[in-house]
Amino acid sequence: MKKYKLGLILGRFQGVHIGHESIINKAIELCEDVLVFIGSSDKSGTISNPFPYELRYKMLYDIFGDKIHIYPLPDLGVGNVPSWGDYVISNAIKVIGKPDLIVQGQEVKTNTWYKNFKDINFLEVDRQVVPINATTLRSFIRDNKKEDFFKYTNSNIHKYYEELQKYLKEASNA
Known about the structure:
Blueprint: E1 4-11, H1 18-30, E2 31-39, H2 53-64, E3 69-73, H3 82-95, E4 101-105, E5 121-125, H4 134-142, H5 146-151, H6 161-173
Parallel strand pairs: 1-2, 1-4, 2-3, 4-5
C-alpha cells in the first residue's frame, strides 16, 4: 500500500528532462494517483515558454503513459503569492481531488504558495541529484547538442528533438 492517496506535481516542462522524470517517479512510488499539472499551459512561442501545451503533454505521456494524470494549468498572473497556491489546489480538486502530497524540486519561490494548506505534505527532491534544468536543456536543443539532449532526456522523447528545435527557432525569431 502506498503512503499517500494523491500526489501533485506542477511544472512548466519547457523541455522534459530526467530531473522532471525523477520527481514524477518519486510521486509514483509514494502515491496511489499522481496529478501532473503542466503550468503555463496557455503560453508558447516565447524564449522562456517555446513549446505548446500539446507537445509537452505528448512528451510526458510518452514517458509515463497512464501512470499519471496530466492536465493543463493556465497562468493566473499573480506571481509568487499564496493565491497562486490556492489556484493550484482548487484546480486539483476540480479535476481529481485534493492532494495529500506535493512533490517538487527545491524552489525558494514555492515556499509562499501553499501557506493556506497546512494539511498537505511536501517532499522536495534535491535538484543537485540530477544536475539539469529546462533552460540548459533548451540550450542543448538550440545549440544542436543532440548528444547532450539525449543524455538528459528519456529515450521515449528523443523523436521530438527536431520538433523542439523548430519551436525554439520560431521563438527566437519572434
